[in-house]
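Quick one, tokens below. Sequence please?
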């Protein structure tokens, strides 16, 4: 990789130009994620942009759930040596003030989704516990990530409607993660190294950045098929102006109610074991979902996926019907669900509940890969 603008910054960590990453895994990625809502069930937006240096690809998407439709615009291009150029078709991300303020843009396009939005973090960016996982002694995931909630300012056009986005009621969360995790076309499986036949497999993921008036409650619970925890976090992060230390809330527990015939969340309640939070309970009420299976690239569909070469710059628009339970069930997989959070001490907040349940998950009675509530 030749030198680039980044090489004039004091950020080198290996004896190579900054555009060269280590390790050399094709699954190395560097990705932004944002969501936005108006503290109602009217509209919910999720957008992301990633770079895959060892694949030479960068791609981005935005999905907006409004009315009975999910609208998606997605774009992919070849990555040049200038990794500071984040533009992918109409989409781009600009860092205005690191760890505090970013601008996210989707230029007007034929699919009618456009925005120019600035995110201001209201809490400090929270570094999450590092995630490392292996399969048959091969590292499949080795990632760093930080998360943050904040307020939005700007304009949004979607489905023929125009919204003036003001920081008094338009909020959301973002994360930035990088490292190794499976991207793009699935790698071939070596039968000799695969799990023995009949070994139970399953993964259950809950990620909840809850935003209240003066703080964020951030919860992560990752479990395998039998409910064994492989990752967890529960922390209260106060607004930057409060200048207060974080409160660690102990072990988080979540009781999920599912929509019958699905694995989609109908409601939930969260509790904690920490000495300062053992009497705190938070009720989760889903409002509106963006389904990442619907063209975002998080799930490779045989044509489009994160880091998959589309042959150069390609921009596409898609719509998905959300008007029926059957249509929503077809899209349900990794679900970003805008939710209302009500605490046992009377606070009300909003935020996203990210939920994924794959394979077996015995605590919920999902005793086969296709089992549903």
């Amino acid at each position: 990789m030749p030198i680039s603008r980044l090489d004039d910054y004091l950020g080198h960590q290996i004896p190579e130009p900054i555009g060269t990453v280590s390790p050399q895994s094709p699954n190395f990625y560097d990705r932004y994620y944002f969501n936005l809502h108006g503290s109602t069930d009217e509209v919910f937006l999720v957008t992301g942009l990633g770079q895959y240096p060892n694949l030479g690809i960068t791609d981005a998407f935005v999905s907006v759930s409004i009315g009975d439709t999910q609208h998606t615009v997605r774009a992919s291009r070849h990555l040049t040596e200038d990794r500071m150029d984040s533009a992918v078709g109409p989409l781009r991300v600009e860092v205005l003030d690191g760890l505090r303020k970013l601008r996210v843009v989707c230029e007007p396009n034929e699919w009618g989704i456009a925005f120019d939005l600035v995110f201001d973090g209201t809490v400090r960016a929270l570094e999450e516990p590092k995630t490392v996982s292996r399969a048959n002694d091969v590292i499949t995931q080795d990632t760093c990530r930080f998360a943050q909630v904040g307020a939005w300012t700007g304009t949004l056009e979607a489905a023929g409607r125009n919204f003036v986005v003001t920081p008094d009621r338009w909020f959301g969360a973002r994360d930035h993660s990088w490292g190794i995790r499976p991207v793009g076309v699935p790698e071939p499986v070596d039968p000799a190294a695969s799990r023995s036949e009949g070994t139970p497999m399953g993964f259950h993921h809950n990620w909840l950045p809850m935003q209240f008036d003066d703080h964020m409650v951030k919860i992560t619970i990752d479990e395998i098929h039998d409910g064994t925890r492989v990752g967890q976090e529960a922390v209260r992060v106060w607004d930057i102006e409060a200048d207060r230390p974080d409160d660690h809330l102990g072990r988080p527990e979540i009781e999920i109610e599912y929509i019958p015939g699905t694995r989609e969340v109908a409601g939930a309640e969260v509790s904690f074991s920490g000495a300062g939070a053992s009497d705190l309970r938070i009720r989760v009420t889903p409002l509106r979902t963006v389904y990442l299976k619907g063209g975002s690239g998080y799930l490779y569909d045989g044509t489009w996926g994160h880091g998959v070469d589309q042959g150069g710059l390609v921009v596409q628009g898609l719509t998905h019907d959300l008007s029926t339970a059957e249509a929503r069930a077809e899209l349900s997989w990794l679900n970003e669900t805008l939710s209302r959070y009500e605490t046992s001490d009377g606070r009300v907040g909003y935020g996203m509940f990210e939920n994924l349940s794959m394979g077996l998950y015995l605590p919920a009675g999902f005793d086969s890969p296709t089992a549903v509530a």
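Helices lie at 325-331. The domain at 5-183+200-364 is CATH 2.40.370.10 (AttH-like fold).
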